[in-house]
Amino acid sequence: MLIASQMEPTYARRVYPCFDEPAMKATFNIRIVHDPSYVALSNMPAIDVSEMKDENGSLWTVTTFNTSLKMSTYLTAFVVCDFDYVTRTERGNKIRIWARKEAIGNGYLDYALNITGPIFSFLEDVLNVSYPLPKTDLVALPVLGAGGMENWGLMTFQEPSLMYLPSDKFTSRKAMVTLIVSHELGHQACEWFGNLVTMNWWNDLWLNEGLASYFEYLGAIFVDPKLSLDKIFYDHIVQPVLREDNEIVRSLSESEDKIKGSFSLTSLFDSITYNKGASIAWMLSGFLTEKLFIRALTSYLKEFSFSNANQDDLWTHIQMVIDAQDEVQLPASVKQIMDSWTCQNGFPVLTLNLTTGTVRQEQFLNKKKRRSTDPNNNTWIIPISWMRNGSSQPLMWLDKSSKVFPEMQVLESEYDWILLNVNLSGYYRVNYDQLNLKRLAHVLENDPKAIPAVSRFQLIDDVFALTQFGYVQIETALELTKYLAREDELFIWNMVLLNLVPQNLKTTLKNYEVYPLLKKYLLKRMLPIYHYYAGFIHKNVDALEDDYFAQAYLGKLFATACWLGLQDCLDLSSELYTKWMENPEYKIPFLIRGTVCCYGVAVGSDKEWNFAWEMYTHIDSAEDDKDILLSAMSCAKESWLLYRYLQYGLGDPLFSSNCTSTVILNVVAKDIGHRMAWEFVTENWPLLSERYGQELLHDVLKVMGRFVNTDVQIQELQVFYNATLEEDEREATTLLLESTKSENIERRKLLIKIARWLEKNVDD
Question: What element of type H or E holds 140?
Fold first, then answer.
C-alpha cells in the first residue's frame, strides 16, 4: 500500500476544507493517523509519534508534524509508505531520499542523493537566500501524474526521475535525473518561484515554472560540467517550443478572466509555460547579463518572501537594478520589453537585407495556411546578438517593425557574412536574403567551426521551419546541407535527419525516386561521423559514457545509416546480433541495440526471428529490451514471418493487451507490412474490436493514412470503417483521411522538388 498526495493546481480542496487559492497563504498543523507498520511524511519534520486504539481495539500510530511556515495550499503534502531512505545533511538541512526498499538496497538512489545537497547549496549561494526548512524529503513514487512536484520540504518524483541504475550508464537517464532534481530544487531553495514567493494567481504560472526551468540548467551545469548544457538547452527547450508556439493560441501571461473563461488550469502546465518561460528567462538573463539578473532576483526574493507577486513586481525589481548602474543600457523600460514577449502570442521572425542593412520583424505564421487579409501587426522589442565574419558585435535592439542598421550593410568583399541571434540567445527565428545565405553556405563548406555549434543548429533548423511555413523554397534549405561531411556534432545531425528523413516518412520515402538520390547524397556526408562513432562501438564503447548526445541520438544516426542501406551498418548489425545469438549473455551496446536487433532480424531469416521471439518470451528480459524486441520482430523482410507475428500477437497469452496493438502498429508502419496488417485488422476485426475498441482502429488508420494518395484508396478504407464506426466517428475519420491525402499530395510535390535538386547536386 502507498498513499501520496498531489495538490497542484486545485486538489487541496478535495483533501481538506480550504480557500484553495495560491494567494491565500496560511500555516498548517498536520497530523496523520496510520497503520503502525508504515511511516508518515509531510512538509515539516515529525515532532511526535504516539499510539491510539480505535473502537475495535486495533492499534494505530499518530504522527504529528511541526507547524508549517506560511505557504499556499497547493504545496501541502503527505505520504504514507513502507519505504526505506538514504540520507545526508547539507548545511544543517537533513536530506532524505525515500524509495522502495529494494531500490534503496540496490543503490539506485545514490546518484540523486549525491547531487541534491550540492545543487541546494549552489542555488542558495547564487541567490543569496537560505533554505528556511530544517529538512527535505524526496520520494520516488511508482506512479505520479507529473515528472516531479515541488511540495515544500516533501518533493515527489516518478521513480525514473530519481533512480539511476548502475546499468543505465549508456542512457541519457543520468542527465534526466540531474535536470529534474535540479528543477524541483529550483522551486525549493530559491523559493522565488513557487514556495517562498508565489504567483498571485495561476495566470503567472510561468514565473514559477519558467524560472525553475532556467535554474534547472544552471544547477545541472554546476553538478555535471561535462554536460554541454547550452546545446542541450537549445535542443530540448528552445527548439521544440519554437516548433509548437504558433499552433498554441495563448501567450505566456494571460489575464485571469481569459483563463477562467477559456482554459482549464491543468492545460497551463504545457510547453509554453515551461519551455517558452525558460527561453524568455534565458533571453532576459542574456541581455541583462547574468550578474544583474541574479542581483534583481535576490532583491525581489527578499521583498516578497512568504507573500505573493506577479510579473510586474519582478519587472520593477529588474528596473531598479538597471537604473542603479550604467553598463547595460536598454531601449525601453523592462516592463515594455518583457510584456512584448509575455503578453503576445507566438514570436517574431526577423528578415535581414544584406545590401541595405535593413532588419524587419513580423509574427512567424504559416503563410501556406493564412489568409492574406489577417491583420498581423504585432511587434516585439528584440535584442539582436550578432556576429560579422566570425567576430562578435555589440548587442543591437529592434524596437519597431523595421530599422536600418548601417553596421549590417555589407562591404564590397564577396565573403563578408552576418549572423543574427548568435547561439539562439533570443526567442525568434531569422530569415536571411539569398546573398547572405550563399555566403553562409560558403562559410559552412570551408570552415564550419567559424559559426558556433548552436548557431549552425539554429541556422539549419530556421531555414527548414521557414520552408515549412512558406517563407523560402526547399532548395534554399538544401543548399545549407552540402557541408555536412564536415559536421561532427550529433545534435545537429539529429535535427537535419528529423527534417530530411522524418520518422513517419521512412516507410513511404522508399517508394519514391527520391530515395536512391537521398541515399547517395546523405551517405556520402554521413560517413565521417558514422565511422567516428562506429570506431567506439567496435573498440571501446565505454568511452561514450559521458557523451550525452551519443546517448540521445547515436541510435537515430545508426538507424538512418542502415535504412539508407549502408553496407557497413548492415554488416555491423548482423555481426553483433549473431554474437548475441551465439552467447545470450552478451550485451549488444545499448546505444544502438534497437538498430542492431531490427537489422539483425531484417538481414537474417527465420532463425534470427525465432531467436528474437525466444528472448522476448524469456520472462526475465528487461522492459527496455522487451520493447526493442517487440519492434525488431516487425523488421522481418519475409511476408510469412510478419504474418505469423501478427497471429502470435492475436493469440499468444504472453501478450498483454497493449502489446497486441503495438505489434499491429509496428507491422503497419513497415513498407512490406502495411497492406498485410490492414488486411489482418479487417479480417480479425470482431475479435480486435471486442478487446481494444475503436482506439486501435484510429491508430491504425492514422498510420495507413500515410500511404493514401488517391481517392480510390480512401474509398477502400472508407468501406471498412463505414461498417464498423458510429456516424460521428465516420465523419471525423473521413476528414482525417481527406486532410492526410492532401498532405500526401503536397509532400509528393515537395519530394519531386527535392529529387530535382538532388539530381543536380548529388555528385558535388
Answer: strand 135-141
* Residue 20: CB atoms within 10 Å: 18
Looking only at the bridges linking them, the beta strands covering 59-65 and 31-34 are antiparallel
Domain that holds residue 401: 355-480
**CB 221 within 8 Å of CB 175:** no
Q: 260: domain CATH number?
A: 1.10.390.10
DSSP element (H, E) containing 460 = helix 453-468
**Residue 490 near residue 228 (C-beta atoms within 8 A):** no
Q: Quick one: which H or E segment has residue 315?
A: helix 311-323
The residue behind cell 493487451 is 657
- Residue 259 forms part of a structural domain: yes
Does residue 605 share a domain with residue 696? Answer: yes
- 51 annotated ligand-binding residue: no
Each residue's pLDDT tens digit, 440-482: 999 999 999 999 999 999 999 999 999 999 999 999 999 999 9
User: Is 642 a domain residue?
Assistant: yes
Q: Which three cell numbers stand for residue 36?
A: 503502525
The pTM assigned to this predicted structure is 0.86
Nearest CA among 520, 590, 527, 512 for reference residue 555: 590
Long-range contacts of 309-314 (CB under 8 A, 24+ apart): 309/197, 309/198, 309/199, 309/200, 309/207, 310/199, 310/200, 310/201, 310/204, 310/207, 311/204, 311/207, 311/253, 311/338, 311/342, 314/207
Same domain? For 315 and 435 the reply is no
The domain spanning residue 593 has which CATH number?
1.25.50.20
C-alpha cell at 271: 510547453
Distances (CA, A) of 612 to 150, 625, 673, 734: 42, 10, 18, 38
Residue pLDDT, tens place only, 593-621: 999 999 999 999 999 999 999 998 875 65
Q: Is 34 annotated as a binding residue?
A: no
Residues 546 and 569 in one domain: yes
**Residue 187 marked as a ligand binder:** yes
Q: Which residues are catalytic?
A: 184
Q: Clarify whether residues 318 and 253 are in a common domain.
A: yes
What CA–CA distance (Å, rounded) separates 141 from 143? 5
Same domain, 312 and 459: no
User: Tell me, what CATH number does 456's domain have?
Assistant: 2.60.40.1910
Instruction: Give me the number of domains the chain comprises.
Output: 3
Q: Secondary structure of 62-109 in the HEC alphabet?
A: EEEECCCCCECHHHCCEEEECCEEEEEEECCEEEEEEECHHHHHCCCC
